[in-house]
Amino acid sequence: MDNKDPKKILIADNDSTVAGIYKDRLELMGFEVLLAGDGEDAVNLAKSELPDLVLLELTLPKKSGFDVLRELREDDTLKETPIFIVSGDGEDGDIRKTLEMGASLFFTKSESRLIDIIQNIEGVLLDK
Predict the structure, then answer these.
(1) Alpha-carbon gap, residue 49 to 53, rounded angstroms
(2) Full pLDDT tens readout for the chain, 128 residues
(3) E strands within the chain?
(4) Amino acid 128: pLDDT
(5) What distance in Å separates the CA atoms of residue 53 and residue 45, rounded to the nearest whole number?
(6) Of 66, 89, 100, 101, whose Cβ has the fewest other Cβ atoms within 10 Å?
């Protein structure tokens, strides 16, 4: 990866422990990581920083992950940005709804290993 221009990843998760684990691992790999603890911050950071990829929890304070996803997909500069849903809830209806709304992938926290998520991030960002 070109360290002069690190890929930027926005993590929107209200669980600071989980977000911290992802952040530490991704920074070790050379990514620049931004953290948002609620949906409002996630939208504002995405619009100001234009991340290369977003990891988005669905249950966020202030604005739900669904609302964040909708707003980012309606924004001309962010509509093509890969958005991975990493949620504690893996209900079939939520999975289908987020994919129909334009999410790239859906991971359930209880069923997905960090390495699987990281490999998918690399697959998307290192091909760019």
Answers:
(1) 11
(2) 444 688 999 999 999 998 999 999 999 999 999 999 999 999 999 999 999 999 999 999 999 999 999 999 999 999 999 999 998 867 778 899 999 999 999 999 888 888 899 999 999 998 65
(3) 8-12, 32-36, 53-56, 83-87, 105-108
(4) 55
(5) 12
(6) 100
Q: What are phi and psi of 110, to 5 degrees?
A: -70, -20
List 34's β-bridge partners, or say none. 10
CA distance 40 to 63: 6
- Alpha-carbon distances of 18 from 5, 15, 92, 104, 114, rounded to whole Å: 26, 6, 23, 20, 10
- The domain 8-125 is classified under which CATH number: 3.40.50.2300, 3.30.200.20, 3.40.630.40, 3.40.50.2000? 3.40.50.2300
The domain spans of the chain are: 8-125
